[in-house]
Amino acid sequence: NAGAPTTFSSSADDITFTTGTILLADGSDLVINTSTGIGNISTGAIRGTSSEDVTFDAGTGNVYVVGAIGSGNEINTINLTGNTVHLYGNIITSNTLGNTVSLSGATILESSITIDTSANNGDITFGGTLNGITAHAETLGLTAGTGNIDFNGIVGGSIALGAVTISSAKDVTADAAFNAASITDTAAGTGAVWFK
Description:
Blueprint: E1 6-9, E2 15-17, E3 22-23, E4 30-33, E5 41-43, E6 46-47, E7 52-57, E8 63-65, E9 75-87, E10 91-92, E11 101-109, E12 113-116, E13 124-126, E14 130-131, E15 140-143, E16 149-151, E17 161-168, E18 172-174, E19 180-185, E20 193-195
């Protein structure tokens, strides 16, 4: 199916791919949609070939990515939407324009992870709350180049994060309370850090 999007949809059932790594062929973006019902979306690691996009929309269901997304220039735009988005592995996007990461819904770090969009300065957006699973244990490393990082919801409101490290970004904005073991911004950009 090279060159064409690969789409899986259901109206009320779960969609699960957790027994191995998903490998996307050249130009074959991955779309999984259960948003018309309450189906969960579960996958293992996701790898690409040449800047493929990954779009999950679980509506009121949950998203579970039990592995890393991308390596090098494999995966470009990542949009994960669900009632909760559970991340178990690192995320890295390619050097193609639009290499953003958008997590819509409450995000839960099931382990310490890094998100790196610096190859083409993609924005990183947490659209809802962000929590770990053990207080002050799960660390978060963010590298956006000259892209922006936005925390739209409360961070660590239920379970505080471990150390949060921002290695590069333009503007970093936290729109609500932020609870973590530590916050370190080593970015040398010209932007601002806003805690509102």
